[in-house]
From TrEMBL:
Domain Mur ligase C-terminal: 250-371
Protein name: UDP-N-acetylmuramoylalanine--D-glutamate ligase
Signal peptide: none
Protein family: Belongs to the MurCDEF family.
Pfam families in the record: Mur_ligase_C (PF02875), Mur_ligase_M (PF08245)
Limits of the Mur ligase central domain: 32-227
Keywords: ATP-binding, Cell cycle, Cell division, Cell shape, Cell wall biogenesis/degradation, Cytoplasm, Ligase, Nucleotide-binding, Peptidoglycan synthesis
Keyword Isomerase (UniProt): no
Subcellular location: Cytoplasm
Pathway of action: Cell wall biogenesis; peptidoglycan biosynthesis
The keyword rRNA-binding belongs to this UniProt entry's keyword annotation: no
InterPro entries referenced in this protein's UniProt entry, alphabetically: Mur-like_cat_sf (IPR036565), Mur_ligase_C (IPR004101), Mur_ligase_C_dom_sf (IPR036615), Mur_ligase_cen (IPR013221), MurD (IPR005762)
Protein purpose: Cell wall formation. Catalyzes the addition of glutamate to the nucleotide precursor UDP-N-acetylmuramoyl-L-alanine (UMA).
């Protein structure tokens, strides 16, 4: 932008709004970032802290400006902030009391240029933390493990794939990435476990008691609980409220069941990793609706999970040809490319009708685009709401 370019030319420091909010806020800040699951985890942290009487204020990239929340906050509040790489890139002294990095996947390269700049922006979240602060990190993500080697704060990990001596984990662990998926009807009964690193262990609840499907949502729940423990909530206080967690709108949101087919809205899945997580959440046949803004990815990372979990693809948007090609390589028997109709809404409604024709009782129709919405829609929210209305009007 010209004003930013001019400021750089004149040697004037440019910072983002969260840097200003940090200086305004009398309340300690929880900063949550990652390529996926930021909004879900931030929402759940707010709900769990509220149940524990910790007076949270949720703001940031989730919708409410952080400066607005900072001016409302008092010393006995917790400011729970969802933070994007864009926001973090323009920070200087921002220091959250609790900083969480949920995961890293290839995204926003049209802005950052390469993964190095993207990751460097994300990990600025930890740059000013001290020994009295906390870094909550996903132990299943290799970038997060690398971050653990360099932070000055106390590290609190969470994992769905490894038993931890200290932290939150799923018991038994999920199979490692690339391992054969658990057969339907043979998945073990899992629990969510906390270990304090001193020999103490607490079972919080059974995984099936969470009100959301999918291993990735179990990881999100572990992250939210770990963040709350870092903020001072006892593990025992979390068990009850965690049973009340529900999917956030446009994030693997159940829409309806019709003729034995379930419809799920995952419009917020704007990269391949989010779509892969969504596909792994279902054990029956999945008719996937995907496609959107073309940012240069070839989507080949989706090939194995399409082969394992999808029965059909309905592709639309700029990336429809690329996704259809990957589905063909994955061996999907049914692939439908939806060409643009008179407008974007008509195109998506046609895609939903095509998916309904391909689905059989016991199947799932899943909108999980793996792409941003801006080639067709003003936002992923608009895309998701049209999908939901289309499903309800079949």
């Amino acid at each position: 932008m010209p004003p930013v370019a001019k400021a750089a030319e004149l040697g004037v420091e440019t910072v983002t709004e969260i840097e200003v909010a940090y200086h305004l806020s009398p309340a300690p800040i929880i900063g949550i970032t990652g390529s996926n699951a930021k909004t879900t985890t931030t929402t759940w942290v707010g709900q769990l802290l509220e149940a524990a009487g910790m007076n949270p204020i949720v703001a940031g990239n989730i919708g409410r400006p952080l400066c607005d929340a900072a001016q409302e906050a008092a010393a006995d509040n917790w400011l729970v902030a969802e933070l994007s790489s864009f926001q973090l890139k323009g920070t200087a002294s921002f220091r959250p009391r609790v900083a969480a990095l949920l995961n890293i996947a290839e995204t926003h390269l049209d802005y950052h240029g390469d993964m190095d700049d993207y990751i460097a922006s994300k990990i600025k979240l930890f740059a000013n933390q001290t020994e009295g602060d906390w870094a909550v990190l996903n132990w299943d993500d290799p970038v997060c493990r690398q971050v653990a080697q360099s932070v000055r704060s106390q590290v609190l990990p969470f994992s769905i794939r490894e038993r931890l001596e200290r932290g939150l984990f799923a018991e038994p662990p999920y199979p490692a990435d690339g391992a054969a998926p658990e057969a339907e009807g043979h998945a073990p009964v899992r629990t969510i476990v906390w270990r304090d690193g001193r020999g103490g262990e607490t079972t919080l609840l059974r995984e099936e008691e969470l009100g959301v499907p999918g291993a990735h949502n179990t990881a999100n729940a572990l992250a939210a609980a770990a963040i709350c423990i870092a903020a001072g909530v006892s593990p025992e206080q979390l068990s009850g409220p965690m049973r009340s967690l529900r999917a956030v709108e446009h994030r693997l949101e159940f829409v309806r069941e019709r003729n034995g087919v379930k419809y799920f809205n995952d419009s917020k899945a704007t990269n391949w990793a989010a779509t892969a997580n969504a596909l792994r959440s279902f054990r029956g046949g999945v008719v996937l609706i995907a496609g959107g803004l073309d940012r240069g990815s070839d989507y080949m990372e989706l090939l194995p999970v399409l082969r394992e979990r999808a029965k059909a693809l309905v592709a639309l948007g700029e990336t429809r040809g690329k996704l259809a090609r990957v589905a063909e390589l994955a061996g999907l028997a049914a692939i439908k490319i939806v060409e643009p109709e008179k407008d974007a809404e008509s195109t998506l409604r046609k895609a939903v009708r095509e998916a309904a024709l391909l689905a059989e009782p016991g199947d799932t129709v899943l909108l999980s685009p793996s792409c941003a919405s801006w080639d067709m829609f003003a936002s992923y929210e608009e895309r998701g709401r049209i999908f939901k209305d289309s499903a309800h009007n079949l």
